[in-house]
Amino acid sequence: NVIVLDFGGQYSQLIARRVREASIYCEILPYNTPMDEILKRKPKAIVFSGGPASVYSENAPVCDKRIFDTGIPILGICYGMQLMCHMLGGRVEPAETAEYGRAELVVEEEDGIFSGLEKNLTVWMSHGDSIITLPEGFRTLARTKNTPHAAIGNGRNLFGVQFHPEVVHTPRGREILNNFLFGIAGCTGTWSMKTFVEEQIRLIRERVGNGRALCALSGGVDSSVAAVITHRALGDNLTCIFVDHGLLRKDEARKVIETFKDKFHINLIAVDASDRFLKRLEGVTDPEAKRRIIGEEFIRVFEDEAKKLGKIDFLVQGTLYPDVIESGTQTAAVIKTHHNVGGLPQDLNFELIEPLRDLFKDEVRKVGLQLGLPEEIVYRQPFPGPGLAVRVLGEVTREKLSILREADAIVTEEVKKAGLDRELWQAFAVLTDVKSVGVMGDERTYAYTVAIRAVTSEDGMTADWARLPYDLLDNMSTRIVNEVPGVNRVVYDITSKPPATIEWE
Ligand code: XMP
Question: At which positions is ATP bound (predicted)?
Fold first, then answer.
């Protein structure tokens, strides 16, 4: 296995993901994890992540220096390399020219981490400091125009790269990481999603023991996968609760109940709580307030149901890594309060089980297939916890919800008919709070504007608007205005993320 020591870098999870993609088990630990904790795991290799600090600043995060004496292969990335250099007696200073973005790397030593690669490589840089002098015993392995020591090594087990091999903008990054993991560290690559599932089942059993757990089942891929993993671990000691908060899409509730109760034989309680939610949302227009209320109410409904079931200590949630990071970690600022993380009230009585917390969406899909979930669920597009409430802009009312449901069903149907549903990360309708004037059958209308949102994305963290065929857009628009009373105009959202987000609220 491999450990990523996290120095607060933006890409720590991405490094872990690349390691997992090489079929190697990977764990992320904070930079100040004690040595014996690290050694206990018998890592085959350690990767130091990047980080926002400067090694010479006062509170710069440092690791235990003895780690360099263990002989374990270490790859330092960006800050990780500078730290290695600094701690071993080299010098790091602010660079004359900071380097951000694409850079041309010239390889000087072609074996080791650059084994089998060309001499000139495109890499992705993001740093303000540079190495000025190398520690004793180190050599320069590659340079760029502005960075004379862009990759370094001691000829044995210690390596550093100033650029980011883990991002897609470093096209040969995967090979560089794999050279380190397989070539230098001798990893074997036998880990798989199957091992992941077994490991999670073991961890859940260990934690829950004979206790009982509740699972928030929404029918989306995340909570479905979390529920099935937990069901495998606990059997009937898991009760799933499906809350219909009245903010679901057309026919959604019925389908979820059929699938999990009838097909999977999971202990499922379906609660129709729509009145409760809609009452609390009355008059609320602020997006963050809406999200908070729904998150809170969700947990309250759970608590009420849980009370009826007797003593239950654990709550299972399908939280993914992007949800965690966008709700604000040490390094990332809060962008939206995600329903399953930041929205939890303080007086929560459950302990959380989050088996998918370290995974990206496409990894969860692989786990789902591994678990034998039907493709229909595994490839379902993501749907936010707060549901249609974040797609009905402004106040949420039953009338607006029912308009949106019909429009959204048309978007979904047409996208599927065009065979694009798997290619798109998401495609849905938004009911804007804008009314405009139209003319239908010689009559003036004054009705709502529906926006269509369709995006492509790898992981939901960034996204591009989908270049949908005009004919498809035309079909959707024509059908929506003709079939959905209360709508007389359809627009298409052509913004990427960033600067916009995928959802409108
Ligand atoms: P945004 O709108 O932040 O969305 O660009 C990124 C992805 O996350 C989904 N999303 C959520 N998922 N709870 C969730 O489980 C939420 O509160 C939530 N808000 C947004 C969104 O649909 C997109 O796929």
Answer: 218-224
